[in-house]
Write a structure and sequence with these properties.
The structure holds 2 protein chains of 2 kinds. Chain A is an alpha/beta fold. Chain A has helices at 30-38, 146-166, 184-190, 251-255, 258-266, 285-301, 316-330; strands at residues 2-9, 12-15, 20-22, 25-28, 43-51, 57-60, 62-66, 69-73, 92-98, 100-105, 116-117, 132-140, 175-180, 196-204, 210-214, 217-218, 225-227, 237-241, 272-281, 306-310, 334-341, 362-367, 371-374, 379-382, 404-407. By secondary structure, chain B is an alpha+beta fold. Classes of the chains: A alpha/beta, B alpha+beta. Chains A and B meet through helix 6 and helix 7 of A and helix 3 and helix 4 of B.
Chain lengths: 426, 125
Amino acid sequence: MKLEIGNIFIKDIQFAAEAKVADGVLYVDKAALEKVVLEDETIKSVSFDIAKPGESVRITPVKDVIEPRVKVEGPGGIFPGIIAKVDTVGSGKTHVLKGMAVVTAGKIVGFQEGVIDMSGPGAKYTPFSETLNLVMVCEPVEGLKQHDYEKAVRLAGFRVAVALGELGRDVTPDETKVYETCGMKEGIEKYPNLPRVAYVQMLQSQGLLHDTYVYGVDAKKTLSTILWPTETMDGAIVSGNCVSACDKNPTYVHENNPVVEDLFAQHGKTLNFVCQIITNENVYLADKQRSSDWTAKMCRLLDLDGVIVSQEGFGNPDTDLIMNCKKIEAQGVKTVIITDEYAGRDGKSQSLADADPAADAVVTGGNANEVIVLPKMDKVIGTLDYVNKIAGASAETLQPDGSLVVELQVITGATNETGFIKLSAR
Amino acid sequence: MTGGYILTNNPLVTERLGPDVPVEYLQCSYKSLLEAARDRIHLGARLLSHPLSGSVKPGETPYKSVILTKGKGDVDEQSLELIENAILACAKFQQRCDRYPPSVDLDCRLIDWTLLEGALASVIL
């Protein structure tokens, strides 16, 4: 499976009467996008705003972050099973509006979170302080239930991203990257001396604001399965979760998964990147057993030498992580696991809710309980009304001078467990 | 799976489930609910759902629902480890849900319910 990614570098976003991409500038027709959002009758209104790196702007509560893409060659379309038909994606050619993102915001529940600061100390903790953000805040019609509101905002974000991606269809990319992996037999013949490595991605799948969708299917209703790693680059996996925003994968992270990216960078050199295995993180314990059994079984069936396992979330997924690790290791396949930590504000508590001696190679995204002071910003997109209730916040969160005292938990992507973060100990 | 029941301190759970689904409602805190589950595990019940379901952490929501078997007998080690770790985790988070206004309290009930609902999709009690 071979996919060409054509990156169109976006250097600025401006509102304009005509939507287009020209000379690296994305011109956004606000009225046209409004129509795209209001196709859904459960959305009463939408407002658009632009937030640029370095500005004194805070965006909250963030629901999702999405990168606009368009399929220009090959089967299927972006976000299969959701916006496009359900055809298998991941081959052909895809154009990307690189350097910008669609950020959806809106209060679905009262303790929701997700903060993106475009400048100041908080900006270092979120990768989305470096993207030009088109922020859309959707207001629901009166009486709309939270489930329906969540779905409406989720889908509106994808529709807008696809509409923007379409503007890049006929633009010549500034950079083209090629990603290709082989079938099983071909891979063994081509790279007989390289270790066979796969990526096991665990997907949050528990309930409202805790869900992920694969080709349109709620991940909690799926069995562990295999993807070509390029499928996710065309939006095969999308986010429906945002609670405890530090370690949830927005759709943007699925489209740009750094584990996939790094394994491709080593493919054919130090390892043979065999495939991506996706598995869920359900609440029901028998589901956990079944999913981790299946994941381990596939690792053996594929004759893997090693896997990288990434977690999504905290607590309940710690159990899935350790189950996966233990069972895969028991099949003779080496594991490296990527997680984050809830080690208390002082960092002295046990980091994970589960552990095992088999988990002897662990990468951490950081301690989500760590406290940070976010100074007042000149402008807030969204609302600070609920900021005292968000995860990692407290009654004292909003200080008289407008600053926020919060745990890293509230910052979108701060301790991301795919490694999609900018800070490291290196 | 038969012979299981839901142990909850969330009034929405009793409201949403029909009389055919066995539910035991306790008016208590999040941590006390976990401790009540632990006591039953010591008597031989097994956990059927994960006690740390959801990303709304202990201290951030007052509500918790877990699914247990009704069985009595030997202690299930895995269930005991899960519940003990969950109780330990309560200490890592700041207690603030007691200061929520009523609308946010209702949202907490709803999230706990949807997490339980996800688990119930896999089980017939």
